[in-house]
Automatic annotation (TrEMBL):
The chain crosses the membrane at residues 32-49, 55-73, 80-102, 187-206. The keyword Membrane applies. It comes from the Bacteria. Keywords: Membrane, Transmembrane, Transmembrane helix. This is Integral membrane protein.
Length: 232
């Protein structure tokens, strides 16, 4: 017998269709909210980590955003594949997006100050890793050490003229360049934009194709069959 022969089947189907149509806008809005919120928080966490005393706070927030992506897409929406992709993309976005925002901000709005490289060398961090460091002296006579985070990667020589891009608000350490050119390296923004789109896209897909716990139970029943009661 077809579905039409079951009393009330057509009515239940129509009711389910109307309910799905009514919930579609809410589902889209909810999916879009998470698809924007988590990448924004991850990027902001990466930027916060660029501040001298913001590293650990940025790391905690980035890990929280990564966990939120996994919980929302995997735990709430039952999309394991999208959850895995969104989690890795969220963490990568914090790692790449923060330094890119830092460079973009200070090179766009920073005050350019002439400086001279007094010395170059390396320091060893707590993990035993050797990191490049440059000691520069600006026109006021102030000497300061510039790390790899500030674009010192061993490319400068002692007594070389460089330009410091100072944060106008004074919160971030200066960025060093060989010239005063404010042009940005396109690789950083491109990678950041791609990771932002990947994170948001994975979350939006998971939200639009979300499965309820009932859907998962029905899927399991179709795969393994209904449970059998043991005979007395």
């Amino acid at each position: 017998m077809g579905v039409s022969g079951i009393p009330g089947a057509s009515g239940n189907t129509a009711e389910a269709t109307l309910e799905a149509a009514a919930s579609a806008p809410r589902r889209t809005l909810n999916s879009l909210l998470w698809a924007v919120l988590i990448p924004v928080v991850s990027t902001a966490a990466g930027f916060l980590a660029q501040y001298p005393y913001g590293l650990w706070a940025g790391v905690v927030i980035a890990l929280g955003a990564t966990a939120a992506a996994a919980i929302v897409a995997g735990g709430m929406w039952n999309r394991a594949g999208a959850a895995t992709l969104a989690s890795f993309a969220t963490l990568a976005l914090a790692l790449f997006g923060g330094p890119t925002l830092y460079e973009t901000y200070v090179k766009t709005f920073g005050e350019r100050v002439d400086a001279l490289v007094a010395d170059t060398g390396q320091r060893v961090n707590a993990k035993g890793t050797k990191l490049d460091v440059c000691r520069v002296v600006d026109t006021t006579g102030r000497a300061q050490d510039v790390s790899e985070q500030q674009n010192c990667h061993g490319q400068f020589k002692p007594e070389q003229h460089v330009i410091l891009f100072n944060d106008p608000l004074g919160g971030l350490d200066p960025w060093v360049e060989a010239t005063g050119d404010r042009t940005l390296d396109p690789v950083g923004p491109a990678c950041t934009g791609g990771l932002f789109a990947l994170t948001g896209g994975a979350l939006f897909y998971a939200g639009q194709r979300r499965r309820t716990d009932r859907d998962m139970a029905l899927r399991q029943r179709r795969g393994y069959g209904a449970p059998h009661r043991s005979e007395p």
